[in-house]
Amino acid sequence: MIAPRKIKLEAKKKRNENYEFRIYLKENADEQELDEQFYRLHKELFTGYDCSRCRNCCKMYHGSIPETDLARDAEHMGLTEEQFIEKYLVEDDRENGYQTKNIPCDFLKSDGNCQLGDCRPESCKKYPYTDQPDRWSSLYSVLDIIEICPVAFEIYERLKKEYGWRYRN
Ligand code: SF4
Ligand code: SF4
Questions:
Q1: Sorting pLDDT into bands at 50, 70 and 90, what band is 105?
Q2: Does the Cβ of 29 fall within 6 Å of ligand 2?
Q3: What distance in angstroms lies between residue 112's CA and the mean position of ligand 1's atoms?
Q4: Which residue's CA is the nearest one to ligand 2's atom 8?
Q5: Strand partners for 92
Q6: What does the pLDDT read at residue 169?
Q7: Which of 2, 42, 55 maximizes ligand 1 atoms within 8 Å of its Cβ, making it the mutation to test the pocket?
Q8: What digits encode the pLDDT tens for the residues 60-91?
Q9: Given the DSSP bridges, would you call strands 89-92 and 97-100 parallel, antiparallel or unpaired?
Q10: Which ligand 1 atom is at minimum distance from the Cα of 4?
Q11: What's the whole-number average pLDDT of the chain?
């Protein structure tokens, strides 16, 4: 598995290759079978992987907080909703909610854990989405994710092997 700090560089080297493989999958993969392959590799590769030693997903993105989470998150942090917003968040028009003021996410602790604990957003819990359905329709976002997440990068590499696909440039 690639070290988290090297992922940007390694993914950049493979950007054209990864884009070509996306086209291959789009044209050749069976949607259901592809979901099953992603799911199986996700389970296999995340088992035993310690995300607290990576946290690229918290270091390289703003945290995205839906409006519906505000009351619960504010209570978790011992703040009123207004205080919580003022201290940590700015409005995010695209998502119809809020995002943290900073990158890395303001809720990332120095030990790699999230200050929001179990209250962290669903989007964080599901990241990198490689065990979620509709991977065939989401292959563009997979290309972005493999530039952040070492496990997703490795899943994509394993998929190339499973399909017997090789890059010819
Ligand atoms: S989900 Fe991926 S990017 Fe996030 S901490 Fe785990 S390995 Fe790193
Ligand atoms: S809210 Fe928590 S899990 Fe989500 S990006 Fe921020 S630190 Fe990471």
A1: very high
A2: no
A3: 11
A4: 58
A5: 97
A6: 75
A7: 55
A8: 999 999 999 999 999 999 999 999 999 999 99
A9: antiparallel
A10: 8
A11: 95
pTM of the entire structure? 0.92
pLDDT recorded at residue 150: 97
User: What is the C-alpha to C-alpha distance for residues 133 and 83, in angstroms, rounded to an integer?
Assistant: 37
Return d(Cα 86, Cα 119) in angstroms, integer.
19
pLDDT at 94: 76
Residues 59, 108: contact at Cβ < 8 Å? yes
pLDDT of residue 93: 79
Decide: 60 and 104 in contact? Cβ < 8 Å: yes
Query: Does residue 96 come out as left (phi exceeding 0), alpha (psi in the -120 to 50 range) or beta?
Result: left
* Burial of 125: CB neighbours in 10 Å, binned 0-12, 13-18, 19+: exposed
Q: Which ligand is nearest to the CA of 77?
A: 2
Ligand 1 atom, smallest distance to 52 CA = 5
- Does ligand 1 come within 6 angstroms of the Cβ of 55? yes
Secondary structure (3-state) at 45: helix
Does the pLDDT of residue 134 top 80, yes or no? Answer: yes
